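Consider the subject:
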Amino acid sequence: MQMQKIGTVEGTKAVISKYPFAFQKKFGQNFLIDPRVLDKIIDSANITKEDCVIEIGPGIGSVTQQLIEHAGKVISIEIDDQLIPILTEQFGDCDNFRLIHKDVLKVDLQKLIQEESPNRKIKVVANLPYYITTPIIMTLLENQLNIESITVMVQKEVADRLASKPGSKQYGAITVSVNYYSDTYLVANVPRNCFMPRPNVDSAVIQLRLHDEPPVKVGNVKQLFKIIKAAFLLRRKTLLNTLAAHGELGLEKDKLKELLDESGIGAQTRGETLSIEDFARLSDYIDAHR
């Protein structure tokens, strides 16, 4: 007998009514009830039987069900105690499914990938709680894991920020940082009525396709990210003022002005106008002439 599709209004209500479940606001739980959005997630991630997929935040299994059908292996990581019996009962008999009951930020993902899929790149699919979106995305990117793509549901505002271009209001340190590791694509806008319960904001599905090599070569990656972070701390200030106020570069303001002007970036420039290439050029110039 075929399992009822969970990612619908009826399917979600059926699961919730069957189990003693209460929505946890602290985990930002909103379950997807629109099958068309589910299809877009699977299609855009190009999930095939050759793939091992790590799913973060499976919830009651709306996306999990589709992933198990299409992928060679699915590893779902869920933090909420209440959801473990639900996921276990529904998918525990599936040969290609493994459930990990843990906070994803406390999972040794490098070890997990090595154990589960040592010879092929991983695809990550996630419906991330809004309050912890950035830490999870940056953890996945910074740890240099063997990941091909990250397809993720996020708050619309976050999606706009990640996909923004230099000079736009949404462009920020997270945009530049993500650009160092991946290319960002907007897959679909997802209105709030596609979820149960309905959140207060709209969402979007974005996909990060990881670079085999960073788009810029830079001598001191740690310094590059310090400059990126500092450049957006005082958004309305010039690059000179915000870098000087941050102080982590250990340079006097006069020296900093000199280096900014000589590098071609300019002391009066604002960080929000610079691309990842500009930041890399500035970092290397400071390194060479400090």
Summary: The radius of gyration is 21 Å. The mean pLDDT is 92. The beta strands are 31-32, 52-56, 73-78, 97-101, 122-127, 147-155, 182-190, 195-196, 203-210. The longest strand covers residues 147-155.
